[in-house]
Amino acid sequence: MSVSLRDRIVLITGASSGIGRVAALKFAQAGAIPILTARTVDKLLEAAAEIRETYGIEAPVFALDVHSDQQVQRVVSEVLDRFGHIDILLNNAGYGLFEKTIDLSVEEIVDMMDVNYFGLVRMTKAVLPSMLTRRSGQIINLASLASFFATPTHGVYAATKFAVQGFSEGLRYELHGTGVALSTVNPGPVDTPFFDRADRTKLPKVASKFLSADAVADAVLRAARERKPMYVLPRIGRIGIAFRHLFPWVYDKVMLSNS
């Protein structure tokens, strides 16, 4: 079953660039009203102007740092006051540092977990009560293939995404029968400004091909229409997930050859 996205209120974190920005444009193209949030307001305003000029839709802009409980609560309250409800929450904000664990400071590790995992939890906790009251809504969590594979120099980043996957799976079971759906979108490496911080030269050899932000945003919209639990990109990634569980000794050899 495919759900219409017309007039849906879609709150997007990390909407200033990359997957979040492209997803916002695609939601607007589908007739939804994207709510744009990120720390960089100037880029949000540029995205909102493009949405207005291209699709004739006003996309509200909110400065939001998902580190902050106060900012999360304030923005969600303002959106609910203005629109009355949120149909879809797209938890997209996040970043990665690809280094050996010994080379990362504790502060860097804590901050990555705070944004990638706790930021997503903050947003979910703020939005979910209103969805449960209406018995309607969807949470889409942008996870990663790193939710399933901890490769060399990716252990800390993978830990944040393992946490997202575990949180999402448990919450999805809790939401059964409530009218609220939860989906994860799990892409491999994506050619976005994410790699302004993450060192692409430290990607494992098996992850040398990059997806486009456009392809991942398409998967996000499929998730919004179909409401299935999990989307993996590229599809061959599903084979990799199965392979590591069916042949763990071979998987270990492959990973060690990338160390």
UniProtKB/TrEMBL annotation:
Q: Could you confirm whether the keyword Manganese appears in this record?
A: no
GO MF assignments:
oxidoreductase activity, acting on the CH-OH group of donors, NAD or NADP as acceptor
- Keywords annotated in UniProt: Oxidoreductase
Superkingdom: Bacteria
Give the GO cellular component terms, alphabetically. membrane
Q: Does the keyword Disulfide bond apply?
A: no
Question: Which InterPro entries does the protein's record reference?
Answer: NAD(P)-bd_dom_sf, Sc_DH/Rdtase_CS, SDR_fam
State the family it belongs to.
Answer: Belongs to the short-chain dehydrogenases/reductases (SDR) family.
Which PANTHER family does this UniProt record tie to the protein?
DEHYDROGENASE/REDUCTASE SDR FAMILY MEMBER 7B (PTHR44196), DEHYDROGENASE_REDUCTASE SDR FAMILY MEMBER 7B (PTHR44196:SF1)
Recorded protein name is: Oxidoreductase
Q: From which source organism is this entry?
A: Tumebacillus flagellatus
